[in-house]
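Please decode residue identities from the backbone states below.
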């Protein structure tokens, strides 16, 4: 964990000398996956611009977590974009649909759960792409995972590759010869692997929030996201500092 503060000090030193770093847009929800991605991108030497969404989600407490994570990991900027996906609904996170509790690992990988938010990553990546054009960035980071991903279709590598093609075809930057890269450093990792990586990068997981259905600001401990988080810490052999209700 000492490596991260040392790297931040080095980056600050380079900034003071006027050294240019390439900008990148980081999709940051405030969960442990996106926090790990922010730390990863920072240590890769990018000037990280975090993009967070207040989209009417049931678990809005993650917005405060995203702010804490940005502060801890030294994001260059953070933008919070307000959307109203409750106007569309169709998900337990954006409509009056019960969040599944106590599901087995096998059940989580069977079908697409009701916590899937219709086209969410397509929408979020579109905003990230717009910001990247404005910042003259060609790199976008997202914490999708195709192993412990609860069956979400927009977390698969096929989707990411397709979106990267759309980015090049549908933007001024792409039309004038630039190419966008969508980075998915966690896509082949288990939750335990993500936690180990985040620990090595110096992420303070106590600052993050993963629960879909928090109780008075605390994680419920029983939704799919909480169960995956608990299992990840256990398999990683690490203490879970999450405050459960």
């Amino acid at each position: 964990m000492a490596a991260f503060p040392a790297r931040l000090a080095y980056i600050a030193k380079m900034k003071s000398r006027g050294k240019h770093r390439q900008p990148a847009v980081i999709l940051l929800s405030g969960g442990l996956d996106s926090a790990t991605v922010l730390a990863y991108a920072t240590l890769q030497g990018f000037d990280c611009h975090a993009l967070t969404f207040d989209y009417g989600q049931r678990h809005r407490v993650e917005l405060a977590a995203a702010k804490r994570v940005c502060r801890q990991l030294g994001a260059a900027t953070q933008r919070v974009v307000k959307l109203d996906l409750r106007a569309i609904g169709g998900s337990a996170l954006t409509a009056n649909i019960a969040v599944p509790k106590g599901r087995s690992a096998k059940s989580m990988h069977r079908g697409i759960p009701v916590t899937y938010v219709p086209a969410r990553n397509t929408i979020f990546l579109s905003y990230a792409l717009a910001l990247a054009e404005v910042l003259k960035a060609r790199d976008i980071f997202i914490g999708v995972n195709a192993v412990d991903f609860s069956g979400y279709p927009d977390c698969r590598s096929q989707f990411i590759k397709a979106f990267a093609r759309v980015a090049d075809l549908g933007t001024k930057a792409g039309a004038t010869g630039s190419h966008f890269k969508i980075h998915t450093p966690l896509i082949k990792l288990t939750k335990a692997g993500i936690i180990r990586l985040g620990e090595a990068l110096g992420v303070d997981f106590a600052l993050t929030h993963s629960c879909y259905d928090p109780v008075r600001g605390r994680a419920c401990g029983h939704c799919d996201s909480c169960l995956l988080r608990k299992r990840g810490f256990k398999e990683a052999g690490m203490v879970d500092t999450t405050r459960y209700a």
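Observation: The chain has nine helices and five strands.
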